[in-house]
Amino acid sequence: MEERWAKMVLIPAGNFQMGSNDGNDDEKPVHTVYIDVFYMDKYEVTNKQYREFMQAIEHRALGYWNDS
Question: How far apart are the first and last CA of the chain?
Fold first, then answer.
């Protein structure tokens, strides 16, 4: 894989507190969520970089790509 795509860090599995008791109804209540291990880019990725990555792996963008 090209170096510019390789700057990722492993995020370990674990629990975190999600939501807000003071927020909107769809944020309540605070609750524990388990997330499995995953990788995340170490640095921010621009839309242009993401598009280039999708093209490099020959993956078609999702239908709502232009909605933003």
Answer: 29
pLDDT tens digits, 7-25: 889 999 999 999 999 989 9
Whole domain around residue 44: which residue ranges? 3-67
Residue with tokens 């790509």: 65
CA 36, distance to chain mean position in Å, is 13
The string of pLDDT tens digits covering residues 37-57 is 999 988 888 889 888 888 888
Domain count, the chain: 1
DSSP code per residue over the chain? --GGG--EEEEPPEEEEE--TTS-GGGPSPEEEEE--EEEESS---HHHHHHHHHHTT-PPPTTGGG-
Q: Are strands 14-18 and 31-35 parallel, antiparallel or unpaired?
A: antiparallel
